[in-house]
Amino acid sequence: MNVAILGSGNWGRALATLAAEAGHRARLGHRGRPPGGFPGSPNFHALTAESDLTLVAVPPSAVREVIRLARPGPAARVVIACRGLEPETGGWLSEVVTAESACLRVGAITGPTIAAEVMARRPSAMVVASEFDEVADRTQRALHSAICRVYTSSDLRGVELSGAAVTVLSVAVGVADGLKLGVGVRAIIVSRGIAETVRLGRKLGANPDTFRGLAGVGDLIAAASLHDHPGTAAGLRMAQGGTADADTRKRAEAMVALARRHDVELPLAEAVAAIAAGRLKPRLAIDMLMRREATTES
C-alpha cells in the first residue's frame, strides 16, 4: 500500500515508521528541506493522488491550507492524524477536509501514541474512526504491526472530540503540576475531565465508551505523564507565571464555545480558557473549581 503522510515533523516521521513497519511504502509530504529517512515530495497534490491512503499530520491550524494544496479527489481516503478543533473556526477537522476538497471518505486517529516512543520501537496503540468501514480498515492495515496495535471505530465524532478535549485537559494537568498540587489532583482532572467530555459527547451523538478508551482516558493519561507534551508544558508555563501561547488559548476557547452551543457546562475547560486569556490566576481558578456546589458523580 502507498501511504502519504502530509507533514514531516516528528509525528509525521513516526507515522511513516509505523507504515513501513507494517510493510507499506510511506512517503512524506514536506515543505522546505526534505526530511531524512523516508522518500518525500513537496507536491502534496501528486503525493495524495498517487497514494492509497493519506494521513494529515500537521497542526490543526494548518489542516485547511494543506488540504487546499493536496486537493484530494472523490476516490481519496484522508485521515486526520492531529488532535483538536480548527482553532480559527472551532470546526471539526474532518469537515474541513470535505469542505475544501471533493473527498468524502474521511477518518481520524488518536490515542496514547508518542512519536519518540514509536521511533524507539516501543509498544503503542491507537484508534482510527470513520463512518466508512473501508477507511478505518485500510488505516488499520496501514499502521498495525508488532509495535503498534490499531483498533477501529465508527465513532468519528467521539474520536475527534476526545482529541480536542485532551489538548485542553492536558493544560489543566500542567497547571496543577506547576502549582505542585500532587498526584491526587492530577487524577481528579483526568477523571472529571473525561466526565465533562462524555456529557458533551452525548449531546453530539458520540458513544460514551469512546472517551473511556484509548482516544480519551488513554491519550489523556499519556499526556498527563509527559511534561514536554505541548498541553502539559503550556500549563506548567502558565502556573509559573508565563503567558499562554495563541494555540493554547484558541484551543480552549474553541472547546468552550462548542460546549456552549450545545448547552453543556465544562468547568475544567472553562477554567483553562480563563487562565489562558489572563482572566484568572491559576491558583484562583483551582480554588473556584473546588468551591463549586456539591453534586452527584456523573
Give a verbal description of the structure.
- The chain has 298 residues and is of the alpha/beta class.
- It has 2 domains: 153 residues, Rossmann fold; 128 residues, N-(1-d-carboxylethyl)-l-norvaline Dehydrogenase, domain 2, CATH 1.10.1040.10.
- 52% of the residues lie in helices and 13% in strands.
- The protein contains 14 helices and 8 strands.
- Strands 3-2-1-4-5-6-7-8 form an 8-stranded mixed sheet, with helices on both faces.
- β5, α4 and β6 form a beta-alpha-beta unit.
Keywords:
298 residues; N-(1-d-carboxylethyl)-l-norvaline Dehydrogenase, domain 2
Summed up, the domain count is: 2
Shape annotation: globular
The residue fraction in helices comes out at 40-55%
Strand order of the largest sheet: 3-2-1-4-5-6-7-8
The secondary-structure class comes to alpha/beta
Any idea of the CATH topology of the largest domain? Rossmann fold
Low-pLDDT residue spans: none
Beta-strand percentage range: 5-15%
Counting H and I runs of at least 4 residues, what is the number of helices?
Answer: 14
Quantity of strands, as a count: 8
CATH architecture label of the largest domain: 3-Layer(aba) Sandwich
Measure the end-to-end span: 44 Å
Output mean pLDDT: 96
CATH class of the largest domain: Alpha Beta
